[in-house]
Amino acid sequence: xxxxxxxxxxxxxxxxxxxxxxxxxxxxxxxxxxxxxxxxxxxxxxxxxxxxxxxxxxxxxxxxxxxxxxxxxxxxxxxxxxxxxxxxxxxxxxxxxxxxxxxxxxxxxxxxxxxxxxxxxxxxxxxxxxxxxxxxxxxxxxxxxxxxxxxxxxxxxxxxxxxxxxxxxxxxxxxxxxxxxxxxxxxxxxxxxxxxxxxxxxxxxxxxxxxxxxxxxxxxxxxxxxxxxxxxxxxxxxxxxxxxxxxxxxxxxxxxxxxxxxxxxxxxxxxxxxxxxxxxxxxxxxxxxxxxxxxxxxxxxxxxxxxxxxxxxxxxxxxxxxx
Length: 323
Fold this sequence. Notes:
Layout: H1 10-29, H2 35-55, H3 66-79, H4 83-98, H5 109-112, H6 131-143, H7 147-159, H8 163-168, H9 171-180, E1 182-186, E2 192-196, H10 200-209, H11 225-243, H12 258-273, H13 278-289, H14 294-322
Antiparallel strand pairs: 1-2
C-alpha cells in the first residue's frame, strides 16, 4: 500500500491525469535503457506527478525546479520511504527531464537533501536545526518584512507541525488550544491528534494579531494555501546556506520539515528529564508528531539518542574513575 495518502479532490485529480498523459507520451517514444528500467522510471515520475498535482497544482512537468524536488524529498522521507526508493525516483525524474531538455540544472541528491546511497537506509542525516540557525532565519524573514514566515517557523519548531498543518491553522484552533492546553490538528490520512501548547506567549500573539474576519492564521485574503507553502519553502531554500552554522557532513540540508526533527528531539529530551523512560518518551513524541509507526519517529530521534548514549557512557566512565 502506498505510504502517502494520494486521495485527491476532483480538481487535483484532473491535474494529475493531465500530467500522467504527458508522462505516458514521453515514455512511449523513448528507447533508452532496458524495458524494466523504463517501466520503473515511469512509475517513479508518476509518483512525483501526484505530489506536484497535489502540492503545487502544476499543469506541466517541463518546469520542474529544484525547490519542487527538495520538497518532494522532504515528503518521501516524512512518509518513511527508503533511501533507494528516493534516489531511484530522482534518477527517474532526471531521465524524464533529459527527454526534452538538459537535466544538468538539477542539483545533486546531497544538495537537494537526499541521503547518499550506501548510508544507513533507515536513519540518514540529522535534519534538525540548531537554535542559532532558527533565530538567524527568523531575523532574515523579519528584515525582509516577512514576519509571517518567522511566525510559521516558530510554531513549527514549538509544536512539530508539518507545513501543510501550519497552513490549515485557524484562529479558533489556537483559541481552543489556549483554553484546553493543547492544539487539535488534523494530519495525514485524516489522523487527528492533540499537541500540548509549548509556547503560550507566541500563540496568544498570533491570536491577537489575526483579524477576526480572517479565518486562517497564515493564509491571507485572496491567497491559496499552496501559494503560501511555496513562498515559505522558497525563502528557506534561498537562505539556508546563509544561516547554516554547522557544516557537519552528517547533517542534512535545512528545510521546513527539519523543524519537526528539532521539535522531536527537544520534546524527547524534555520528556526524559521529566522522568519518562526512553520507550515512554518515544511513544509520546510519536503521538504528538502524528506518526502511525514509532519507527518513523526513531529516524527523527537517532542523533539525539546517540548523544544521550555517549553522555551516559561518559558519566559511567567518570563514576568508574571516582571509584
